[in-house]
Design goal:
The protein is of the alpha+beta class. The chain folds into 2 domains: 172 residues; 97 residues, Rieske Iron-sulfur Protein, CATH 2.102.10.10. The chain contains 7 helices and 10 strands. The strands form 2 sheets. A 6-stranded antiparallel beta sheet has the order 1-10-9-4-3-2, with no helix packed on it. Strands 5-6-7-8 form a 4-stranded antiparallel beta sheet, with no helix packed on it. Helix 4 runs antiparallel to helix 5 and helix 6 runs antiparallel to helix 7. It is elongated. The mean pLDDT is 93.
């Protein structure tokens, strides 16, 4: 319970807001979607090309390498195994390099957060930066023959990284940053009337509700398409976005999805959008879950 209380304390730190504003503006300026280079870099760092957020992939490198390094340091010190020193040093360096990559991808993902997740994310980043700096100092100590200081600095860095990892877990599992926000509940497997056909003009989009699932209807070149209305990235309402040919762009962060398949066409999303079958019968637009598909 004390750890959860600590997260509340972090959330109450008002000084994080102006700091977060400054950092967020700087990141967004570099990774802007206003130019092709910034857009491609943002998509790459978010993992759009991978179909999976890139940040958690890279965080495993420092965590794993530093754990190995800590273990080898301990065996060298307490079991009298000096032959393990090169392995400990190598693991420390590998973790340091991995942490740099994790930091950059983490900033790319964090720039889209607001309120409590943004404050917790900033604290997470500051702690990781401190841990990485300590590991950098550990590398210098090892290279200059001060192994004892290098081991102590690495241990301190590992402790800070562990606290930061706890905060990162809360950001993912409590606030769902980096996970799929599209609805998991499937539509009925029989066609359900949702809107009069005349109420959806050419080039228009409408949000309808099927049970607990908000659905986007869009008409392009006479054909009606249906996708989940809640953006997979961070839950933006697609019906408030805009159409771009046979695709829809989320109004929150610019993720773009194909209307005919739900495929992701542009990031920062790393996931496709659920697609539903549509037909027009008796003047009514009807939708259903695609045949053979259930809940994800």
């Amino acid at each position: 319970m004390e750890l959860l209380d600590t997260l509340d304390v972090i959330d109450q730190q008002q000084w994080l807001d102006p700091t977060g504003d400054t950092v967020q503006r700087a990141v967004t300026t570099v990774l802007t979607h206003d130019n092709p280079t910034g857009k491609k870099l943002d998509n790459f760092l978010n993992g759009t090309w991978l179909g999976h957020p890139l940040h958690p992939v890279l965080t495993d490198i420092p965590v794993g390498a530093w754990t190995v390094g800590l273990t080898l340091d301990g065996l060298e010190s307490f079991a009298g195994r000096p032959e393990l020193a090169p392995g400990a040093d190598a693991a420390t360096v590998i973790g340091f390099l991995g942490a740099l990559g994790a930091a950059v991808t983490g900033l790319a993902q964090w720039q889209y957060t607001v309120d409590r997740p943004r404050r917790l994310g900033l604290a997470h980043a500051l702690l990781n930066t401190t841990a990485t700096a300590l590991y950098g100092a550990s590398i210098v100590c090892r290279l200059t023959g001060r192994r004892g200081a290098g081991k102590a600095t690495a241990l301190f860095g590992y402790t800070i990284a562990a606290v930061s990892a706890y905060i990162g877990g809360d950001i993912v599992y409590t606030h769902r940053i980096g996970v799929n926000h599209a609805p998991e509940e499937p539509l009925p497997d029989t066609f359900t009337p949702v809107l009069a056909d005349r109420e959806l003009p050419e080039g228009g989009m409408e949000r309808v509700q099927v049970g607990n699932v908000p659905v986007l209807l869009a008409r392009y070149q006479g054909t009606v398409y249906a996708l989940a209305n809640t953006c997979a990235h961070l839950g933006g309402p697609l019906n408030e976005g805009k159409m771009d040919g046979c695709s829809v762009i989320c109004p929150w962060h610019g993720s773009r999805f194909a209307l005919d398949s739900g495929a992701m066409l542009d990031g920062p999303t790393t996931l496709p959008q659920p697609r539903y079958e549509v037909r027009v019968r008796g003047g009514q637009i009807e939708v259903r879950q695609p045949a053979g598909e259930g809940a994800p």
